[in-house]
Amino acid sequence: MTGFGPRNPDRVPSRPAAERVASLVSGKPPAEPVVFPMVVADHASRIAGYPIVESVTQADTLARVLYTAWREYGYDMVMVFTDTVLEAEAMGAQVVISEDENPFLLEPPRVEKLEPADPDKDGRMPVVLEATRQLRKLLGDDVPVITSIKGPFSVAAFLCGIERFLESTLERPDEAQEYLRVATDNQLRYAEAVFRAGGIPFVGDPVASGSLIGPTLFRKFALPALAELVGRIRGLGTWTGVHVCGNTVGIVADICGSGADVVSIEIDMAAARREAGPDKVLMGSIPTSLVLEGPADKVAEAARENLEAGGPNTILSTGCDVPRDAPPENVKAVVEAARRRTWR
Amino acid sequence: MIESMEPPESLLAALAAAVVGLRPAEVGTLARRWLDMKLPPDQAITEGLAQGMKRVGEKFAAREYFVPEVLLASRAMYAGFDILKAELGSDREPRGRVALGVVQGDIHDIGKNIVKVMVQAAGFEVVDLGRNVSVDTFVRAAGEGVGVVGMSSLMTTTMPNMARVIEALDKAGLRGSTRTIIGGAPVNTRFCEQVGADAWAADAHSAVIEIEKLAARGT
Lengths: 344, 219
Fold this sequence. Notes:
heterodimer; A: alpha/beta; TIM Barrel; two-stranded antiparallel sheet; 15 helices; B: alpha/beta; Methyltransferase, Methionine Synthase (B12-binding Domains), Chain A, domain 1; 5-stranded parallel β-sheet; 9 helices; 13% strand; globular
């Protein structure tokens, strides 16, 4: 099945996506920018005409919807991602999966025994791993498959219950550290399994968002665990990325300090670039609300501004997941904006 | 432990400081001391606890405090509130009744819970509808004499459910008697105008200000 190019774009880059990504993360930004609006299971299901429940529980469907969306849009990576609570579920937290909404946690989660899951057996981790393997086959070596895993801080919060966990960081730091330790161990195992399946583990840490915790707690709890995970992933011999959504003003340099090759953010690209310095590969940050609401020409304008503000060391992307119901023309506008720009 | 010599003003200041300082146990002790001195409970709520929560809201807006601090401050506020409320006469009129809920399909309720504690501290009675709240439940609450309905959504996929609630209130003929306010990370002025809500707020602090305005407008 390899060699099937994307269906749409009028301008196909001269070098394959994987080559441009490899070049970018090794410090030599390619002339043709890398673009990846963060399309994941929910939006891809809409594009491919499947209910979300099927994509988040069946590997074949997950691979098929993500592949279909990639062919439709022709961006430069495919991200395997179902929902934020997948890992906590595999460790024993109860999750509600409905027909066409993203899975969510029952609160408070009732986790009987705190221990790392077995990625090949527990919960829906095997679904993500199998979809990763299938996509690697479908896409061959030309398009990177990145598989999203959650940061230890977020997994710990989902395991403990978000409010209880956030309170414990101030009141009962030992309890917070205990959850964080087991969550980190889980993520280390899961990252290795993702890598064995042919995916590039890419870490999203939504609860470590600057909209929830401040720089002090980020540095004390979220960052050390994140850095440990990133270090292990890079030790496998691959690049990796970290995505932190929400208001991360003031902690972009810290996120860079995790050692991640790519730092993905939701804040204004110019502000993030100032904090990160010119050489860091940043990914982002077209507002998802704009991608949802449009119109397409406004999205294109934001995409162009974003790319100029970020410069050559930028992966043009959305600030967070492309919304389930975003009109396809708005997502296409992001890809086209990148295809119309060449760095000299 | 009766320290009857302590002037009420310093006790009020201590209550506020203990809320801002995130010390629930101390707030409880101070609230009990206030009642031991036979002072009016509602004064301790409005001039002690509420002042503390107001400062917490300001610190949150200024990014000095974040969600963990606000959660602890809320617990501190309730530690006093529950003690003082038990002693309030039943004739005490709240400033108004406010129903709060996270719309259907959405379970992110931290923001709603923070708004709830701030609105209660400001002297309103809050009907907490919880999370993943159906359109019908919002409409029923409005039909039961609630002056302001507050809706929260943290996801772009569930935002349209706010519009559905407002439409349903319209159909039920309740827009005259009930004001609507919306909030949550993806909500903005444009969305507020689009769905025809009476107000929106970017954070808990401004939510209280907006709800006060809506309540003052009356019906």
